[in-house]
Amino acid sequence: MSWARALAFNFVFFSWTAIIGTLGLPFLLAPRAAAMRFGRFWAKSVLVLLKLIVGLSHEIRGLDRIPRGGCIIAMKHQSAWDTLVLPVVLGDPAIVLKRELLLLPFYGWYAARAGSIAINRKAGAGAMRRMLAQARAPAVVGRPIEILNAADNRDIDASFATLQKRAAALLVPPDSLFLARRVHLVGLTLRHAVPVLFPWREAVEIGGLMSYGPSFPDGYRQVGLYTGRILKGEKPGDLPVLRPSKFELIINLQTAKTLGLDVAPTLLGSADEVIE
Q1: Which member of 113, 136, 158, 181 has the lowest number of beta carbons within 10 Å of its beta carbon?
Q2: Beta strand 210-214 with 247-252: parallel, antiparallel or unpaired?
Q3: d(CA 107, CA 101)
Q4: C-beta of residue 75 within 8 angstroms of C-beta of residue 146
């Protein structure tokens, strides 16, 4: 009956959003902080509906690690639930989102009034400059800046050209978007001569400088072990969720020489593999 609960939630969600969004239209003329408080009330109410209708509960860990005041949070955006919980957890975030979302009825209107930072992903380097300009105001008053948008190759090219002038090195997060573009990313690191730490050894094998992250083969081995246990009759819901236990540091010495870097002997000694 999960489909029935999902159908019921969608009906209640859209009906409630239309009602509360219409009643709250005066907030679009109110100060930005008031619009954010109204949006936070709507988000909390939808989370309650999720729990009552669908039975979805949540647990948030690590809030003590978020610095107070202005900061940048690069979130791995995976579902619409993420956008609901942001104002509830962070209070008054400045959300970076694609410009098209502002066209959505109700959500887009209130997001714009609450001070979201909209970007045109087709504008290349210009989008990055405008985003930085818009981010200065919320940063000054200590609002956390939350980045939700994903980028294509054109956006990544523009970002690299901008960031390499400001950063001595870069860290690539473990996201499937970047994993699929690892060849493109490695090419950019060499073209702009920027040292980059990747989360996957596959990037280092094709010319990246270094990587540190969980071992994929070890993860696949765990999947095989769990598959065997399930085939023997164990219930999947009874099996614990495992975290990665084996991490690998891989260094490409040839790339280090190309970039003109001297790798410390202590770092080389701690590497699981050195590509020469």
Answers
A1: 136
A2: antiparallel
A3: 8
A4: yes
Q: Is this prediction's pTM over 0.70?
A: no
Residues 6+ apart with CB under 8 A from 176: none
Domain with residue 247: its CATH number is 3.40.50.2300
Residues 6+ apart with CB under 8 A from 154: 122, 124
pLDDT digits (tens, 9 = 90+) for 188-212: 888 888 888 999 989 999 999 999 9
Number of domains in the chain: 1
Three-class SS of residue 146?
A: strand
Strand ranges (DSSP E) for 80-227?
94-98, 117-119, 145-147, 170-171, 196-198, 210-214
> Which residue from 51, 54, 131 is spatially nearest to 98, judged by alpha carbons?
131
Domain of residue 182: give its range: 167-276
**Residue spans of beta strands (DSSP E) within the chain:** 72-74, 94-98, 117-119, 145-147, 170-171, 196-198, 210-214, 247-252, 273-275
> What band does 147 get if pLDDT is binned at 50, 70 and 90?
low
Burial of 201: CB neighbours in 10 Å, binned 0-12, 13-18, 19+: buried
Nearest to 147 by CA among 83, 200, 103: 83
Q: Is residue 131 part of a domain?
A: no
Q: Are 238 and 261 in contact (CB under 8 A)?
A: no
- For β-strands 247-252 and 94-98, DSSP reports them as unpaired
